[in-house]
């Protein structure tokens, strides 16, 4: 799973480079999560997940508070959560998650991004079956053996634990996202380098330089769309 972590790290780095877009996307996601239940992360699991993710991207408290206050104020902006699937060059596959208040606009923009950058949209389910929904949590200052012992003592099951450079990466079922974090928070570890609910490819493809250049144009075009929240893919960008 090491390369999968590299792809998450690569995506995180690219998002860190365009913070205003990142903050806008998180603001929308926080608002939607807060509207779906109580605007309190302790009673709203979806909101708690988003806030944990936002923390690892250093989203300012002012943006978080504004989105939650907007939801509390009864704002009537309605968003649909939609997923699109598609193909890029030479066996590359992508999943595109969106939040939109205009479905026609979003599907047209996503389809156009695929078409103009060497890809094509697929039917629902044409790609997703090759990915696994996964919780990914990373922390520093511990070894994989120490993390495993901590989780065993807390009776928390995970899929895998790996050391990548100075970071220990835990892969778990999505429903274990909070349990893993709480196990660490109970012993005083509250800072995480990554806290994501993601879609990890079951296998990855390595592209030629030409195909990778084309793929990265497609990836950038999709991630630049205002309605796109997340893009998952099966390409080893470091291959």
Automatic annotation (TrEMBL):
GO biological process, one term: regulation of DNA-templated transcription
Cytoplasm in keyword set: yes
Recorded GO CC terms: cytosol
Boundaries of every TACO1/YebC-like N-terminal domain copy: 3-74
Domain of life: Bacteria
Keyword rRNA-binding set for record: no
Domain (TACO1/YebC-like second and third) ranges: 79-235
InterPro entries referenced in this protein's UniProt entry, alphabetically: Integrase-like_N (IPR017856), TACO1_YebC-like_2nd/3rd_dom (IPR048300), TACO1_YebC_N (IPR049083), Transcrip_reg_TACO1-like (IPR002876), Transcrip_reg_TACO1-like_dom3 (IPR026564), Transcrip_reg_TACO1_YeeN (IPR026562), YebC-like (IPR029072)
GO terms for MF: DNA binding
Any Pfam family matching the protein: TACO1_YebC_N
Cellular compartment(s): Cytoplasm
Keywords assigned: Cytoplasm, DNA-binding, Transcription, Transcription regulation
Similarity remark: Belongs to the TACO1 family. YeeN subfamily.
The protein's name in its UniProt record: Probable transcriptional regulatory protein JCM9157_3612
